[in-house]
Design a protein that fits this description.
Elements lengths: L1 H15 L4 H8 L3 H13 L4 E4 L5 E4 L12 H9 L3 H6 L3 H14 L2 H13 L17 H10 L1 E8 L6 E14 L2 E7 L4 E4 L3 E10 L8 H16 L2 E7 L1 H6 L2 H10 L1 E2 L7 E7 L2 H10 L4 E5 L1 H17 L9
Antiparallel strand pairs: 1-2, 3-4, 3-7, 4-5, 5-6, 8-10, 8-11, 9-10
Helix pairs in contact: 1-3, 2-3, 4-7, 12-13
Length: 326
């Protein structure tokens, strides 16, 4: 709706300062011409909005002008309270700040939206870690977070999985990521690397400034990191046929691969043939043996032969009559 878009323009200029018509169009997913019309509408309504032409120009609000928090829809008000994460905020030392911000936001809402937001907060709770994940102590999270906020380099004693186990690193903090209940630090200066905050053994602050690489986007970097991780985790492939039960047990990248590559098996009605990513022959052997008669590996031949060898050894160990392989 136009009214919602006009409010979005006001809030964008209020929070970010000067923005070009192209930047506003990109944020709002509209045309530049639409932004021009909206700017004219705001100016006609008395909003002190002015624009400068030229390479460094753009739209800007008159210094000191602020708009009150109005125009929230019911869904927007509910979403704002749903995004509150008291656990992670408390770990960062921002628990009281989050509570105060939610209190101020609630007070600014009209009564009907306030009731809806209260209902949302009372009926939804975010608990990110999995059931079997133990809570990892992060005693230096506050110091690391402070370095991120202040843009200061830190010297850390870090525990890693290979020798030497404990190493000293001078890091330029770029950002923090909370993934499945675990905090990660993305830091330089030699390329953006990922560090588990619970493996930081000590932190020493420095007076050195940590500069973000030009154009660095934390969310985009993390997305690429996840893609690279899954590509390394599943470097090989196997062609298999699966019963409906076996197909229903697949998760993650294998479930997605089943959706994109799966097709009815011509030799077994009701079964599905697909090409699935696998971590290694060892992992794949264990996985497909656990599916017993609900799965059959067709290729690569080396994996199929490995499973046949294991089955032959099991047959001999349990003194079972040998059966002809398929």
């Amino acid at each position: 709706m136009k009214s919602s878009r006009l409010l979005s323009i006001l809030l964008l200029l209020q929070t970010r300062g000067r923005m070009t018509a192209a930047e506003l169009a990109h944020e709002l997913e509209v045309s530049v011409r639409t932004v021009y019309r909206d700017a004219e509408a705001l100016a006609a309504a008395g909003v002190p909005l002015y624009g400068d032409a030229g390479h460094s120009g753009g739209y800007q609000l008159l210094a000191g002008y602020r708009t009150r928090l109005t125009g929230l829809s019911t869904g927007e008000a509910e979403a704002l309270f749903l995004t509150g994460m008291p656990g992670p905020a408390a770990e960062l030392g921002l628990g009281q700040a989050l509570s105060a911000a939610q209190l101020k936001l609630r007070a600014a809402l009209p009564p009907e939206l306030r009731a809806q937001a209260d209902r949302m907060r009372a009926r939804f709770h975010l608990d990110a870690p999995g059931w079997y994940a133990e809570h990892e102590e992060t005693p230096y999270l506050a110091e690391v977070a402070d370095a991120v906020w202040q843009g200061r380099m830190i010297e850390v004693l870090y525990r890693r999985w290979k020798e030497p186990r404990e190493v000293t690193r001078l890091l330029a903090p770029y950002g923090l990521v909370l993934k499945a209940g675990r905090w990660y630090l993305v830091a330089g200066p030699d390329g953006a690397r990922t560090y588990r905050v619970d493996q930081v053994l000590s932190v020493t602050r420095t007076a050195l400034t940590a500069e973000l690489p030009e154009g660095f986007d934390l969310a985009e970097h993390w997305r690429r990191t996840q893609e690279d991780f899954h590509a390394r985790l599943y470097p090989e492939q196997a062609e298999v046929r699966l019963s409906p039960r076996a197909a229903s047990l697949l998760t993650g990248p294998q479930a997605r691969a089943l959706t994109t590559t799966g097709h009815p098996d011509p030799d077994r009605p009701g079964w599905t043939r697909a090409t699935l990513p696998i971590e290694s022959h060892t992992q794949a052997e264990s996985q497909f043996l656990s599916l017993a008669t609900d799965a059959e590996v067709l290729s690569p031949p080396s994996l199929r032969a490995r499973i046949q060898t294991t089955l032959s050894q099991l047959t001999a160990r349990y003194d079972l009559p040998a059966t002809a392989s398929q």
